[in-house]
Amino acid sequence: MTLANIALSSRRPIRDGLLQFDPPRLLGSHCKACDTRTFPPRDFCPACLRDGPHDVVPLGPNGTVFSYTVVHQAPGGRRTPYVLAYIDLDDAVRVLARIDAPGDDIQVGDKVELVLQEAGESEGVSLVGYAFVPSPLKSGAV
Ligand SMILES: [Zn+2]
To answer: 33 alpha carbon to ligand 1 midpoint, in Å?
Structure first.
């Protein structure tokens, strides 16, 4: 089942406050004192150590692969192999996330974009997680 087939009222993020559905975006916190953004949202700023509350802001859906690995052994229930990567979002936030593509297709520096994906079910509600996919705007294409 694709996300488009799931009614809005019957789905929720894998963790509250992690993402928004429309438009699909990860949510981060923004420190007004030093302009640092973090993911996931935090009550304190890791750059200037100022306590919050900080604004919760949507983070841009596009990023660049900083580093990645291909995971061949994982906890039960996870299909392997899969690509796990550090992705530098265009808003200067580094995110650890899965890339939904074969490892042979990924290189450091590749452009990727956010996708929301079904990530199981809890108490009759579909859980929505996130991953990244290679962007049509591959590195060097711009
Ligand atoms: Zn700060």
So the answer is: 5
Single pTM value for the model: 0.84
CA of 54 to the centre of ligand 1 (A): 9
- Cα-to-centroid distance, 111 and ligand 1 (Å): 27
- Hey, how many other C-beta atoms are within 10 angstroms of the C-beta on 107? 11
pLDDT tens digits along 19-46: 999 999 999 999 999 999 999 999 999 9
Q: Which residues, including other chains, have CB under 8 Å from residue 48's CB and lie 6 or more apart?
A: 31, 33, 34, 36
Cis peptide before 40 (omega within 30 of 0): yes
Cα angle 134, 135, 137; round to 5: 135
* Spacing, Cα 53 to ligand 1 middle (Å): 11
What does DSSP assign to residue 51?
B
The Cα–Cα gap between 134 and 139 comes to 10
Between the CA of 94 and the centroid of ligand 1 the distance, in Å, is 16
Nearest to 93, CA basis, from 37, 142, 26: 37
Domain ranges of the chain: 12-134
